[in-house]
Every structure is written in structure tokens, then in C-alpha cells.
Amino acid sequence: MKTPIFYHPKQKVGHNFISVQKIPEFVRQSNRETLTFEPFKKEDFLLAHSPKFVDEVLSCKIPNGFGTRDFEINEALHYSNASLWAAAENAMKYKTIACSASQGFHHAHFNSCGGYCTFNGLVIAAVKALKQVGKVLIIDGDAHFGDGTEDCLETLKLKDKIINVTRDEIGATNHSNFSKEKWGNFTRELLNRHQPGLVIYQAGADAWDEDPYRCGYLSMDGLKARDTGIFRAVKELKIPIAWNLAGGYTDPMQKTINVHLQTLDCSDIYL
Question: What's the pLDDT tens digit per position in 10-25?
Fold first, then answer.
């Protein structure tokens, strides 16, 4: 068996930035049939953001997370954000693992966007999941601090039900030498402490130490140890997990795609 991937063709747009273009290419190179889903509506974005902010982004009165006022990108956001929820819903339904071919979430604040992130799909998926589970754990493996997620959860007063583990709790200097066993222990401690009914894992490719943004701390072998350790620990405790792509800005783009394909291979051990 192989990890299902949730992706909709309408996520593909003309913007040439790597975080947009790598998604369909990752899907193509995965050699797997993808699962589609219904797009989000405006009310879904309101689960994590203020009505004024959502209205102004979608009407192009203010720039999106890419700094553009582009209706094509804004339309694609309905699908990229829904992709993560579709994966999470599938994982909970079948008590398994699912991949969302999406990224661009954790710098999206309650009232603002930036850092290539417009709406916070992590928070939206977690809020939706709370109708089925008592607590959600977000393990944010992106190399950068998930400031938008923190702001949304603080504003919504949900930090007791949605736990966001972001840099530096994950990504501290000593993690560069972690084996898969140590990553497993790190993850088990989080799971035992928080007792989540769902894990959402951002498998950040910019944690690679050759990423041009220079925030990475893991070799390719280190990334494999991270992903393997996390997936095995979650499987042992029989907790559903949805994971998505995040970060990664190499030129050529293929280097980043290779990181994501490695994560996909590691995720198959859950099944």
C-alpha cells in the first residue's frame, strides 16, 4: 500500500515561484493517482481569519501572501487549503496516514499574510478536526518559526486544544544529530504529553542544510531520520496523521522535490 495524495489540478497556477510550481511536479513524479475534493468556501477561511481580511484578500483589495493581487492565485487558495483538510479527514476516517500536496500556511496570521502564505490551512484543518477529536497536534517541521499559526491560535483562544510545535522546539541545534530513534523518542514524548486525536505534520524541505535560505539544519540522511522517526512513532500509538509539503527553495527545483519524494517514501512505512 502507498500513502494517498490529495491534490486538485486547480491548485496549479501561472506564478513562477518554486512553492507554486513544485507542487504539481511533486505529484507527477510521485507516480500515484491523486484524490480530489471540494474547494473551500469563504466561510472555511473564516475559521482562522477575520472577515475583513478574508474579504479584502479574495476581492484583491489587498495583496495575497505572494505580494500580488491575482484572482487566479486566490482561486487556487480554495483548493490548496482544502487539500490539507481532505487529507486530515481521510486520515481520521480510516485511522491512517494521508498526504496533502500543498504548502504556504504557517506565516498567515489572523489579520494578515506574507512569507508566501495567505490563509492558514494548518489552523483551519485543525479547527475542523476538533469536531471529531479532543485535541490536535501540529508538528511544524518547516525551518522557520510558525508565527502565523501562533497568532491565529492565540487570537482564537485555542492553544489548549491545538498544540503547535514549531521552531525552536523542533529544529533546535541539537536536532541536527538526531537519529531516527531520537526523532521517534521526541515524537512519542509529544504524543504522550498532549494525547492528540490527530497529528498534522508539515514536512519542511527548507530544513535541509543545503537550502538557499540558510535556515536548514539537517542533511538528506537527517531529513530521512526525522520523517521516519516521526511517522513510526505516530503509527506505534495508532494516531491518524496528515502531512503536507512546506518550504524548500533550491535552484534547480528538483533538489527540493527530491526531499519531498523522500518524505513520501518514508510515509509509506505507516501503512
Answer: 999 988 888 889 999 9
For residue 142, give Cα distances in angstroms to 63, 66, 229, 239, 244.
23, 18, 16, 21, 10
Read off the pLDDT of residues 54-86 as tens digits, 9 standing for 90 and up: 999 999 999 999 999 999 999 999 999 999 999
C-alpha cell at 102: 500543498
By the 8 A CB rule, do 137 and 199 touch? yes
Cβ atoms of 224 and 76 closer than 8 Å: no
